[in-house]
Structure formats: structure tokens, C-alpha cells
Design goal:
Layout: H1 13-28, H2 39-48, H3 63-76, H4 80-106, H5 109-121, H6 129-147, H7 151-167, H8 169-187, H9 191-218, H10 220-238, H11 250-253, E1 254-256, E2 265-270, H12 276-286, E3 289-295, E4 298-302, H13 305-309, H14 311-316, E5 320-324, H15 340-347, E6 353-355, H16 362-385, H17 398-415, H18 420-423, H19 429-443, H20 449-473, H21 476-483, H22 489-504, H23 519-530, E7 537-539, H24 544-550, H25 569-582, E8 586-590, H26 594-600, H27 602-611, E9 612-620, E10 623-630, E11 637-638, E12 645-646
Length: about 650
Amino acid sequence: MRTGAEPRPLDHIPGVVIAVIAGLHKAIMMGAAGNDDYQHLTYARQLLAGDLPLRDFWDISTTLQEAVSAVSQVVFGYRLLSEAIVVGIATAIAVFLVFRVIRTMTGSAWVAVVCASLFIVAIPRTYAYPKWLVYAISASLWWSYVWWPSARKAVIGGVSVAAAFYWRHDHGVLVAIGVALSMAAAHGWTREAMRRTAIAASIALLAVLPYLLFVMTALGPVGFAALDVATFSDENVRSRSYLYWPLQSVADYIGTKPAEWYAPEIIIRWEAGLSSEARATTLQKYGLTHTADEGQDLERVRLSERSLDLLHALVDDPQISDTSRMDRASGTFSRAQWPLLNRALFKTRLLRLTLLPGIDRPFEAGMVAAVIVHAIPLLAVLLIVLPISRRLPPAVSPRVLLLFALFTVIVNVALVREPYSLRSTEVLVLPTILLGVMLATLLRPPLSALSKWPAWIVSAGVLLLTFKSVAVAGEFETRVRWLTGEGQSARAYATWRQLATNLVASPPSRLRGGDEELPTARLAEYVRQCVAPRDRLLVLWYAPEIYYESDRLMAGRHLYFFSSFADVESEQRLEMAKVMRYRPPVVMTNSAETPAAGRAFPGLVSYVERNYTTGASFEVEGARYSILVRRDLPPSMPDKTTGWPCYR
């Protein structure tokens, strides 16, 4: 199958630049790692200590991901930087592969640049990088096989299926479907397609055979199947909801933003002991809107038109002891405190005209992004049935496009679920490639005078909707403002310095990173200080960051506590056996989330209640965090800092 003119090496330079920018962007975000980002990092620590998945812990089938993280920790050390390097490299590879595929299939550099740039503004969760990498590699191999089929590439396709399986089992199934469809795309429904598919399947089976044999010895086929099904069924049932189009009126497509969006923000210090009711009354009096808490008695607020007229009165108010981010004497703002562009937007309504205001919030934007992800393969099929099918790029035949669209639909249905603002950006790879085909088809010269402008308008509208929904869903603007200090160099420097500190700190600690108020950060620091390295820890809710930051191994087999585990009898026995074997000196509970552990492993929670007693507890936002100690193993002394029970 012909692919048009082959890109020259220099043609790939824009793709390399975009890939590096996207990779650096995602790598930096590891400096602000969230709860889920610690999951496979915790599994990696188990691997490095000699524990094995399946036999010693259930890793929800992310074996290759934790193995890569473990290797990176060996090379770059026990710090978040090691994972940031993995995330950055994986992202860059994925984005470059998408660029190269689109560039080759469309012959258009600008289409490839525009589509690949989508991955700069898209911000999936950092731990979800395999979804970009797996399907970028799969798509690259898919089109390579279609264009230049060979037995060797069938073998490589089989290897890609096995690799996807090791990243996560469902990825292996989905990539296997894609490989089979690529054979049909290249050879039609012929015996040759079946023969090549059999080659790929044989290689894939051979590559995963060691894992399957290990499964037999560690869990047995029935226990493994039951645990795998329980994990994915629980995850999918909890994450499915009705998907709808949130843009319902003309005002959702075009409108003006309120002036307050561009008003300056100040930080006020309340008089000590001032009640919340008095604070609320004062905010209302001066037309102030709360935006963030900045510490004890400190509150960041956004001003309004009324506030600007009352600034002198606000400064003199006896209930407000101090203000910052403004000149108190003159009641004015410097350019750094209130940029000129924001001043102009605040004062001029016409400048506040905005497109698609209906998706200015992440929830609605995520809904639109998810709809677009599902709609793109269906719209691509229209290219086949409409008269413009003759305008398809030479590298894309109708049958090939149809089968790749089918592959995309299958992957979307399997992976797109709530929260849409996060998960819709995780499956961008295949829809973006189809988007490239659509743009190249609509705008491929020559265009008649009658069709030129409609084609450009439709293309611009699709791109605007796609880019904005993806960017807002991932809060791209918020992150850019955060990284740039909202135009203030001192704040930007502080942000980057904090990110660097978080990335290079070893052992990792959010306490040293400035998150003293996070309960799990306090608990991780406590464990590091008061639980001996040889002892294991049991945390009865999903908090992998405690294991990772404390560098203590899991006394149980699970980070997750899915209620569906209650029906897997073999896993109930294995969980109890491991906890009773290690008998951790400390067990941690959380009143808001530990009940889920009781539903998943009722026998385990009953065992803890009989054999452990509360050694210390504290409350944060209505949830009580408790440190339980063994009844038969009293602590040696209280911790000097917290007074909590200590075993070191």
C-alpha cells in the first residue's frame, strides 16, 4: 500500500520538539504527585525487597509498570525524580510516535504538528502514562504492518501484545484485537491474514507463558481468574455513569466572562479569634470572594468592582489586621500584582468575549472531551460513506480506515469512564490519529472556492472544541499559572524550587515538601521514625503513599479494598495468612475509608479488632486516623515529637 512521499529525517524535528515539551511537562508534574501515583511505586519497593506479585501481593496486573519503576529507582535512587524520568521518557516516545504516524499517513507536517500539540495541553494522571505509550506503540506497529506487511512484523505484533499484557492484562486483550484487525486491514479476510494472526498469537502466548506458569503455582488458575475478574469488575462498575453533551444553549457556545474573573487577588489576615460568621459578613460587606486558605487566620480573596471602591475602608477595617499583594497606603496594585492584560479585561466587556464558556469548568469539559473521543471514530467512518472518501490520503484506504476506527471504538468503550475530566485524556492516542486523517481529508488540496471556507471553518471548530475541552479538563491553564507564578517571578521561583525539592528528596517526604497538614504525610513520617525497617506495616485503606514514603513493606497483600474481594475465598485465606505471618506492630485505620476494608476482608478486620488496640489517633476534616498497636507488644517509648507509640 502506498504511503505518499516518505518523510525525511528533518521532517521529524517538529515532532521531536513537541515530544520533548510534552515529556518535560508531564515529568515535572511528578513533583506534585497525587495519591494514585504512589501505587506502582509502592509495588516497586516490594519488588526491590524480594517480594513478588501474585505470590506476595496483588498488583492489579501492572507488573511491567512496577518493574520499570523499580529499575529506575535502582539507577536514579529512592526519590520521585526516578519516576519523573520514566514518565517523561514514556510520554515523549508516545507523542513522537503519534506525530510520526500522522505525518506519514497524511503527508502533512502542519496536521501532524497540530494533532501532536494536543498532548502538550492534555494532562492525564502521571501514573496513567502506559495508556499513551502502549497505544502509541500499538498504532505505530498497526500502520507499519498495513503499509509494509511481513512475517517479521507479525512477530513484532505478537511481542507488542505480550508487552501490553504485562503493562496491564486488559491492555493485552485490546492490543491483541488491534493486531488481528491490522492483519485483516493488510490482507483482507484471507488465509494469509489468519496465518499472520496465528504467528502473532503464538509469539504472544510464548512470551506470557512464564507469567501464566507462575500464576499456576502462586494462585492457581481459578484463584487468579476470580481475583482478576473481581478487580476489573469492581473498578468498572464504580466508574461508569451517564455521559451527556453539556453545551445546551447559545450562551454555552459564546458569551462574556464576568469582570471578577480578571479582578486582582489579595491575602487578608484576620484578627485572631474572629468567628467564621464574622469573616463571612466582612467578605460580603466588601464584595470579596474566597479563593483559598493560606494558613492560620490567612485567606486569599478575589476583589470585585465594589471592592476596588472600598479598598481604603477595607484596609482600615478593625477585623482585618493586615493585607498583602497590594499597596496599603495608596490602595493600588503594581503590574506584577495586577497584570495589564487582566486590568484591560476587567474594565472592557468586549474583550471578555469568549468562545465555549459552557466548558470553562473541568467537569463539563471532561464530558465534552469524552464525547469527542467517542465521536471521532464514528465521524471518521463518515469519511468513507460520504463523497469526500476520494479525498482520503493515499496512505489510507476506506477498509483500513474502517478497521482502525473499529479498533479505536473498542479501546474507547473499554477504557473511557469516570472521572471523565481525567480518563478522557488518557485515551487520546487513537482518536488523535483519526483526527489527523479527518483534517487531512477535509483540507487536502485542491479545494474549490465553494468548499474551501466551509472546510476550514469546520476544521477550526473541531480543533477549538477539542483543544479547549482537553485543556480545561486537565486544568492546563491553572497549572501554567501555577508554574509561572501568575506573572510574579518570586512566586514562580518558589514553585519551581518546591517542585525540585519534592523530586530530588530522598527519602521522599511531603512534610519536607510543605504538606504538613496532610494526614498521610504525617503518618508516613511517623512510621519512618517509629517502626523498625525490618517490620511491616498494615494500612486498612487505600493510601499507598504511606508505604512508599515510610519505605516499609506491606504486611498484607492489597492496597485496594474492593468489596468484590469478599467473594474470592482463596484470597481471603492468603490475606489472613500473610498478615498473621508478619504480625505488624502497627496497623493504621481511617474512620471514613476503613469500612471498605471490612467489607472486602471481614475476617482480617475482625482479627485486627481482637489483637490490636488504639495507641494514638487524631482527626482531620471529620475523619479519625488511628494508630493501632499489638496488645501483646507494648511500644518501647512514646515518640518525642508526636507522643505516639514508638518501637525504635
